[in-house]
Specification:
By secondary structure, the protein is α/β, with parallel strands linked by helices. It contains ten helices and eight strands. The protein starts with a strand and ends with a helix.
Length: 259
């Protein structure tokens, strides 16, 4: 068993999602929610205030701006609670959390598993491999979505960037998982759809990598992963990880090294 531990990205790797945080309908709905909580906003005003607070908390140096990653280095509940406070309304932690979840639900156009995701995770667990989630994601959103999709029990551990204040490709985020779980990088592989966050970051801490190009992968050249699939196919990933079939096609640089 070459890989005793398989580490997965979530969005764009196992889960297909589309969100729209600038939908006019979203902000009309959110203004209604805030008004019920004692904070009166016009929809456009609320939208602008939300993105202003996000910029303040995140800073200007953002590596990726994909909406599905949901501002991964901050605690999003702080933003929704601050929006109440700025209008003189006091919001409990519970109200802030409920507002955040309402925002995620109303901004999500669809959420679904990629074909073969359940079979992949189930097969790895049934073989006794460690199965881990390491995702640039907002905890309050993603834990709810994992429960809705029914895949949370497949993971031996779930690591979300908002819980640690850093995100892939920062080596500190990878090292939290490796250190806490006693994982030898030489026996582990990272599977993801982002050439910088997943592949470059994992390589930096000594992990093997599998890159999948999915419908929500960043537009970028194919990365120098150990193996590359130019089209997402989780059946082929399972065959590679379990040794039950041909490996995905290696990128040209790796293929040349093996000849």
């Amino acid at each position: 068993m070459k890989y005793r531990h398989c580490i997965f990205d979530l969005y764009g790797t196992l889960v297909d999602i589309r969100t729209d945080e600038r939908s006019p309908r979203l902000w009309v709905r959110m203004a209604q929610i805030y008004r019920r909580g004692g904070a009166v906003y016009q929809p456009g005003e609320l939208r602008d205030s939300y993105f202003r607070l996000i910029r303040e908390l995140e800073g200007a140096d953002l590596l990726r701006r994909d909406a599905h990653e949901a501002h991964p280095e901050i605690q999003i509940e702080q933003v929704f609670r601050r929006l109440y406070a700025d209008k003189g309304a006091e919001a409990s932690e519970g109200l802030a959390a409920r507002t955040a979840l309402a925002f995620r639900r109303h901004s999500t156009e669809y959420l679904r598993l990629y074909e073969g995701a359940v079979e992949l995770l189930h097969a790895l667990r049934s073989q006794g491999r460690g199965v881990w989630l390491l995702s640039n994601a907002q905890g309050i959103f993603t834990r709810w979505e994992l429960d809705q999709l029914g895949i949370a029990p497949f993971f031996d551990g779930i690591y979300l960037s908002s819980d640690y204040g850093c995100k892939k490709p920062d080596p500190r985020f990878f090292q939290v998982l490796l250190r806490e779980r006693g994982i030898n990088p030489a026996q582990a592989v990272m599977v993801g759809n982002d050439g910088i966050c997943d592949i470059k970051g994992a390589k930096g801490v000594g992990l093997d990598t599998v890159y999948l190009r999915s419908n929500i992968s960043p537009e970028e050249p194919l990365p120098h992963a150990d193996f590359v699939l130019e089209k997402l196919d989780l059946t082929r990933v399972l065959a590679f990880l379990t040794g039950g079939g041909e490996a995905p096609a290696a990128n040209p640089e790796k293929r040349d090294e093996k000849q």
